[in-house]
Amino acid sequence: MAKRSFMNNFKLPLTSDELQRAFYVDFEGRRVEGDESLLLGVLWKRYKNKPLSLRHYILDARLNGLTDECFIANADLEEHEWVARNLKSTITELLQLAEAQDRLFISWSQHDYKIASEVLETSIQQQQLKERWRDGKATAIQWAKRYGFEMPRGQNKLSAFIILLNDLGRIETEVPVEYGAGRTGENLRVVLDASERYSEFDSFTERQQDRWCEVVGHNFYDLEGMREVVSYTSTNAHYQFGFES
């Protein structure tokens, strides 16, 4: 990947090849100190001529026993893996893989980047991560401005773009109600409370198990929706950054 001299790497345009090869990443957590990054979902095309791969990293030891296959994605996936590992090891491994395979990271806004960058120890790693990270929301906003779509103030959320592009017939991402926005923090609180009481996932009540499945499902549909939204909007936003398509 050729390096470009830009003040803000996060808003660089995305080529078709970069979109196809990127790691789409999304953290799930709570707005409580110490619980900001409990789960990391990564969606990417691991094999060139095969469907997408999905990996969920369990980043908190309290959730280590919850990696049961309770969630079945409504999508054609090559594989769905579970890995229990701390945040530092996870980001270090993914960065090494991104460097070796020349892949970008794409998230919705820079919040996920900040979580990932804070655990890297060397300035070299931090610079590598910054150069490879892209803000998918920035691309979507530029597309919306170009075509005159006025998003409500404070509503540059992924869910808003998924709804808009679905209504326009540009993407086909159906998000089940139980996996929608606004439920993850409370679901994680319930799951964490249950994990302190029970050592096995099978000991959870049915509703407590469903709460965990909703967290994982929400994460997957955010990843899938982000990939579709960014892939569509980026093809029409390149010149906004001074590049031709």
Main attributes of the structure:
six-stranded mixed sheet, disordered C terminus, 245 residues, disordered N terminus, Nucleotidyltransferase, domain 5, globular, alpha/beta
Structure notes:
This protein has 245 residues and is α/β, with parallel strands linked by helices. The chain has one domain: Nucleotidyltransferase, domain 5, CATH 3.30.420. It is 42% helix and 13% strand. It contains 8 helices and 6 strands. A 6-stranded mixed beta sheet has the order 4-3-2-1-5-6, sandwiched between helices. Strand 2 and strand 3 form a beta hairpin. Helix 2 crosses helix 4, helix 5 crosses helix 8 and helix 7 runs antiparallel to helix 8. The longest helix is centred in the C-terminal third of the chain and has 29 residues. It is globular, with a radius of gyration of 18 Å. The N terminus and C terminus are likely disordered.
Briefly say what this structure is.
The chain is of the alpha/beta class. The protein contains eight helices and six strands; from the N terminus they run H-E-E-E-E-H-E-H-H-E-H-H-H-H.
Question: What's the count of strands?
Answer: 6
Q: In CATH terms, what is the architecture?
A: 2-Layer Sandwich
**Straight-line distance between termini:** 17 Å
CATH-derived topology: Nucleotidyltransferase, domain 5
